[in-house]
Specification:
Blueprint lengths: L2 H8 L17 E4 L2 E7 L2 E2 L2 E2 L11 H22 L7 E12 L7 H16 L6 E7 L8 E9 L1
Helix pairs in contact: 2-3
Length: 154
């Protein structure tokens, strides 16, 4: 068990088994020292844990919880791409957050903080990253949040 696995355990986080993509893409793609993780939604064991929109179905805090689930799924895909060794992560480069929200909802950055905060909890200073928090009219299967990521690895 590595340092990052120990950190996850101390946070009470067990990374789930990854699921195969439902469309024509790969969940992770490595290019040299970078690993790109495709958008992850708040699901577990093939079931969506949240469906609906921010601003009508969910509060900002509930959106943060959904974004955190997405981030856990990002880490699960990353672990698989790194043959189980998250200690190979040099840093989190960027997160992209997509928020399924009502037109008058304006707290997209706060929602995506659910994912950003987890990266800093897990990786410390190496978890600080650039990011985008984008409002969307809809997301696949009506999930409230989707998170994609880019990591630097060794």
């Amino acid at each position: 068990m590595g340092k990052i696995d120990d950190k996850l355990a101390s946070l009470g986080i067990t990374l789930p088994a990854t699921v195969a993509p439902a469309a024509n893409y790969v969940p992770a793609r490595r290019l040299g020292t970078q690993v790109f993780i495709s958008g992850q939604v708040p699901s577990r064991d093939g079931k969506d844990l949240y469906t609906g929109k921010l601003g009508s179905d969910f509060s900002t805090e509930e959106g943060q919880a959904a974004a955190r689930v997405c981030a856990v799924n990002v880490l699960a895909q990353l672990r698989q791409a790194l043959d189980g060794d998250l200690d190979r992560v040099v840093g989190v480069v960027r997160l992209g957050g997509f928020v399924n929200a009502e037109p008058d909802f304006g707290e997209h950055p706060k929602v995506v903080n659910g994912a950003s905060d987890l990266m800093v909890e897990v990786f410390g200073e190496a978890g600080r990253h650039a990011r985008a928090a984008i409002g969307c009219y809809s997301l696949p299967r009506n999930v409230p949040v989707e998170i994609e990521a880019l990591f630097e690895v060794r």
